[in-house]
């Protein structure tokens, strides 16, 4: 009996669903990537490293790849769990688990970061996308893929200021994202889930899924990743607490001029780029400003919430000095 047949065989009438080790391995790789990303995000948040992970192009791209992998796997898992016959009891049980986990993330981030709490992050999105993906389990895979591409294209090319408001931002289409630590809108990310549904349906219909299902790692790193991939939700919920339990005391202990330099460099670069200046100019300008602040020992002036007139004048001199050297309009220092 083939795996394809086994997926629809019953012992006592109930469908039996095989587990695909390859999918668990991919999940394992993705969650390891998330832990790695959040490790450096936390380090940059506490200025233990001299760049801002949330704005650095390479890290932003890495985060989007990780996000794409999870929402794609949501579509894959939906097909593998249900095929063309939706198992409603199992679906609602999993929906409740993911929805409850999403609520915990919202509550936890609201308590920690009330201004930027997560109200529609990756877990919220996976729950909603799973629900919206159910009708696509019964239509041709090519039509699902077509709709998925349309959703992605619409999310990329269309924007309107009204969607920047939090109440609408979960849909997508915002020209500038609202302040939040994680936002996974329906457009374009639902389209990625639909592509996961379409690909898995194609593999089943073409008989290729059986060959993938026969692969089973027994030793080595693939086996470890497969085991990790079975616990992605638990790892996702607890990994940040574990990281912060280590990094926060470390940041408090080592906070010194080095962390001040890192904070200054990262904030200066991000603020400069936000003015529309070229990256090369921002790098040169911030290097100049950092050197001048260090040489003149203006750290108190730079970090003061309400600088004195003398401190403001000293900072203004640094801005003018670095503007003259770089020949462009400089932004204010952080």
From TrEMBL:
> Key word Transcription regulation present in the record?
no
Show where the Heparan-alpha-glucosaminide N-acetyltransferase catalytic domain sits: 19-240
Coiled coil ranges (UniProt) are none
This protein's UniProt keywords: Membrane, Transmembrane, Transmembrane helix
What is one Pfam family matched by this protein?
Answer: HGSNAT_cat
Segments crossing the lipid bilayer: 21-41, 61-80, 92-111, 117-134, 141-163, 183-204, 233-255
Record InterPro entries: HGSNAT_cat
Q: Which domain of life is it from?
A: Bacteria
The name of this protein is: Membrane protein
Give the species this sequence originates from: Devosia pacifica
